[in-house]
């Protein structure tokens, strides 16, 4: 309550500009969430940007290399439903 009063008394705070800025920020996050929801319907959420698998469970699409310290490559296609390959 005291903070609210202090903010409304602050001559440097433009409430309309603040509201517009927050609305723009909300729009940006909404667009990001919408895109992420769409992409995750075909691209497995465990696949990183370099197509390596970060899952902590087995999956038929994991391709292990001779390097035991590296993450397995994901051999899955982004065109099919990846969830059928999970060992769950
Ligand atoms: S190997 Fe399986 S769990 Fe890992 S990223 Fe590919 S589809 Fe997802």
Defining key terms:
about 90 residues; 2 helices; about 5% strand; binds iron/sulfur cluster
Task: Provide an overview of this structure.
- By secondary structure, the chain is mainly alpha-helical.
- It has two domains: 14-43; 44-88, no CATH class.
- 36% of the residues lie in helices and 5% in strands.
- The chain contains two helices and two strands; from the N terminus they run ααββ.
- It has helices at residues 2-8, 15-39, and strands spanning 62-63, 73-74.
- The protein has a two-stranded antiparallel sheet with strand order 1-2.
- 8% of the residues are buried.
- The structure holds iron/sulfur cluster.
- Iron/sulfur cluster binds next to loops.
Give the helix/strand layout.
Elements: H1 2-8, H2 15-39, E1 62-63, E2 73-74
Antiparallel strand pairs: 1-2
Iron/sulfur cluster binds next to loops.
Summarize the structure.
This protein is mainly alpha-helical and 88 residues long. The protein is built from two helices and two strands; from the N terminus they run ααββ. The chain has two domains: 14-43; 44-88, no CATH class.
Shape: elongated
Largest sheet features: 2 strands, antiparallel
What is the radius of gyration?
A: 22 Å
Percentage of helical residues?
25-40%
* Domain module count: 2
Q: Give the DSSP E fraction (strand runs of 2 or more residues).
A: under 5%
What kind of assembly state do the chains in view correspond to? single chain
Average pLDDT over all residues: 87
Q: Total number of β-strand segments?
A: 2
- Uncertain ranges: none
Following the backbone from N to C, one meets helices and strands in this order, namely HHEE
Distance between the termini: 50 Å
Number of helices, where a helix is a run of at least 4 consecutive DSSP H or I residues? 2
Report the bound ligands by name, code or SMILES.
iron/sulfur cluster
- Which secondary-structure class do the elements indicate? mainly alpha
With strands numbered from the N-terminus, the spatial order across the biggest sheet is 1-2
